[in-house]
């Protein structure tokens, strides 16, 4: 293995300023409610508003006024996302009573969370596709109250029309024009007009991410997500044009994004690097993409595809593309990734928008221990037991013995109470 292009070294220190600023926002929203949220909305670019709640009529108007081409694309994406979410949901079955020994019956129920907030970023681009990726799985899971928080456009009281249209197509129950850490705080703590939720999901900037970290425990979250990543495994059969295009598709997200090529071909490494430079010349987002590629982009030449798989497993990227002649032969070696794209036709951008798998994925190596957002995030698998008097008589002596050994006398007595007076 050798590095053809290395990323610049980064300082791995905690940003204490962001931590302190987010903590102050959460405390202010918890104490002052709507007034604090309104102040932060205006401070960060929105206009003063009489209400954060976006009327259903605005969602319908946005849906009707977007172009037919965009409306058709949103509907197709929504249909595929819903279909896949329902297939995933139906793969998780409740477990009825099973007798594990005489008189001891165990099982589990699959129960949706009571409510959730889907945070849809605004920022530099209206990421309306994220509205579909978050709301549709929550609805497929059967969550009774699915809310969405979206930053208003700069100088406006409303989010971008395309995002409102996507939320209409996804079926969000409540939509609020609130963004940033103040939105996370509002849905975790509750305000006069925003009822708290059980769970908050969705990506965001550093402030949103830190806010999710700080409210975790008070509410559930999906995971802590960082900058976007793609890793392309490619051999000599791959197209440098495609590899470069996919690297730049990630690089344009922001200056912290990472595009990585791991290849067994030095020719492909050389040609892909040249293609990145060529394609940057015609890219509207070239300023961001070029900086991202310069600072975070990597090209690694592996001695074999097996070594390339080992490198990918170590990095555990958000998106993993396998652009090799026989991609299915490599699949068995790959373990750590947010989502896998098999073969050169499986563009990561298809997963971002219309294929149907979710694009809300773990980053920064978190794919070593978790997968991406899915309908499963909104479902609780809750166990139950039903033990007959005969079963209790069989279990009580062992439970009493174990409790006594741990020094938990009341536990021991509770077990003994099932078979004798105490």
From TrEMBL:
Zn(2+) binds at residues 250, 253, 352, 411. The active site is at 318 (proton acceptor), 319 (proton acceptor). One of its GO terms (biological process) is L-histidine biosynthetic process. Pfam families: Histidinol_dh. It catalyses: L-histidinol + 2 NAD(+) + H2O = L-histidine + 2 NADH + 3 H(+). It comes from the Bacteria. Pathway: Amino-acid biosynthesis; L-histidine biosynthesis; L-histidine from 5-phospho-alpha-D-ribose 1-diphosphate: step 9/9. Keywords: Amino-acid biosynthesis, Histidine biosynthesis, Metal-binding, NAD, Oxidoreductase, Zinc. SUPFAM superfamilies: ALDH-like. Its EC number is 1.1.1.23. Binds 1 zinc ion per subunit. Transmembrane segments: none annotated. Its cofactor is Zn(2+). InterPro entries: Ald_DH/histidinol_DH, Histidinol_DH_CS, Histidinol_DH_monofunct, Hstdl_DH. One of its GO terms (cellular component) is cytoplasm. Signal peptide: none annotated. PROSITE patterns: HISOL_DEHYDROGENASE. Belongs to the histidinol dehydrogenase family. Catalyzes the sequential NAD-dependent oxidations of L-histidinol to L-histidinaldehyde and then to L-histidine. This is Histidinol dehydrogenase. The gene is hisD.
């Amino acid at each position: 293995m050798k590095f053809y292009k290395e990323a610049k070294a980064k300082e791995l220190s905690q940003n204490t300023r962001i931590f302190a600023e987010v903590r102050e926002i959460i405390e202010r929203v918890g104490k002052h409610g709507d007034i604090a949220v309104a102040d932060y909305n205006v401070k960060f670019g929105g206009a003063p508003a009489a209400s954060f709640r976006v009327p259903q009529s605005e969602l319908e108007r946005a849906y009707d006024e977007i172009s037919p081409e965009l409306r058709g694309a949103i509907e197709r994406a929504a249909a595929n996302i819903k279909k896949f979410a329902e297939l995933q949901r139906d793969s998780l079955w409740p477990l009825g009573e099973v007798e594990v020994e005489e008189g001891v019956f165990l099982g589990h129920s699959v129960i949706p969370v009571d409510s959730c907030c889907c945070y849809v970023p605004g920022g530099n681009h209206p990421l309306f596709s994220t509205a579909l990726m978050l709301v549709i799985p929550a609805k497929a899971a059967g969550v009774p109250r699915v809310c969405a928080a979206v930053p208003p456009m700069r100088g406006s009281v409303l989010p971008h029309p395309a995002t409102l249209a996507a939320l209409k197509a996804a079926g969000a129950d409540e939509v609020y024009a609130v963004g940033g850490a103040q939105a996370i705080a509002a849905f975790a703590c509750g305000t006069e007009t925003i009822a708290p939720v059980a769970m908050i999901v969705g990506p965001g900037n550093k402030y949103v991410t830190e806010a999710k970290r700080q409210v975790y425990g008070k509410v559930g979250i999906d995971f802590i997500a960082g900058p976007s990543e793609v890793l392309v495994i490619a051999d000599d059969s791959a197209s440098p044009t495609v590899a470069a295009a996919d690297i730049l598709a990630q690089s344009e997200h922001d200056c912290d994004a990472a595009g990585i090529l791991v290849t067994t071909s030095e020719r492909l490494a050389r040609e892909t690097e040249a293609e990145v430079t060529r394609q940057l010349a015609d890219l509207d987002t070239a300023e961001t993409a070029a900086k991202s590629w310069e600072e975070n982009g990597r090209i690694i030449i592996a001695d074999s595809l097996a070594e390339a798989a080992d490198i990918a497993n170590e990095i555990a990227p958000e998106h993993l593309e396998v652009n090799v002649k026989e991609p299915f032969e490599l699949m068995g070696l790959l373990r750590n990734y947010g989502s896998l794209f098999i073969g050169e036709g499986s563009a990561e951008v298809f997963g971002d928008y219309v294929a149907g798998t979710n694009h809300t994925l773990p980053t920064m190596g978190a794919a070593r221990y978790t997968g991406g957002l899915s309908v499963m995030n909104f479902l609780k698998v809750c166990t139950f037991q039903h033990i007959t008097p005969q079963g209790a008589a069989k279990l009580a002596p062992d439970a009493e013995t174990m409790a006594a050994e741990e020094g938990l006398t009341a536990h021991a007595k509770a077990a003994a109470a099932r078979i004798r007076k105490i």
